[in-house]
Amino acid sequence: MVEVFSGRTLLNKDGDVVDAEEALRNKVVGIYFSAGWCPPCRDFTPILCDFYTELVEDNEPPAQFEIVFISSDKSTEDMVEYYHDMHGDWLALPWTDQYKYELKKRYNITAVPKLVIVKENGEVITDKGRKQIRDQGLACFRGWLEVAEVFQNFNG
Asked: Is this model's pTM higher than 0.85 or not?
């Protein structure tokens, strides 16, 4: 994953710049393609928030998982509003970063919402993250971790 976002600026929910390589090192990463104008996105985002909170915020040590939100909103303002109102405490690619188009092409994104789960190097573990979370809940993370080739500290 470090490779996918290498040299890129990511933002946290407070709008602070985060070093992508440091934030994503040794983690399974969910690249979340979504938009506030999209009803299925607004339906799934709270489910993803609960999943993320249970894995990362309520676990000690936190699970090796991070989400990067890639916005398909119509403006920076729309993205910021959707990100602040509905998203978990994960990271986002700035709306103005044209790299989002490259990511959409690389991961064959034709519609939102889409949650692509990747290894550190950007190799796809599954492009059905949304379905797996809906169907399996937290259990799907164990499967992702097994193929992610990261140093494991997850006990859940």
From this structure: yes
Q: What is the pLDDT along the chain (156 residues), one digit of tens a residue?
A: 458 998 899 999 999 999 999 999 989 999 999 999 999 999 999 999 999 999 998 888 888 999 999 999 999 999 999 999 999 999 999 999 999 999 999 999 999 999 999 998 899 999 999 999 999 999 999 999 888 877 655 554
Surface-to-core class of residue 13, CB atoms within 10 Å of its CB (0-12 exposed, 13-18 middle, 19+ buried): middle
Q: How far apart are CA 63 and CA 153, in angstroms?
A: 7
CA angle 62, 104, 13 (to 5 degrees): 40
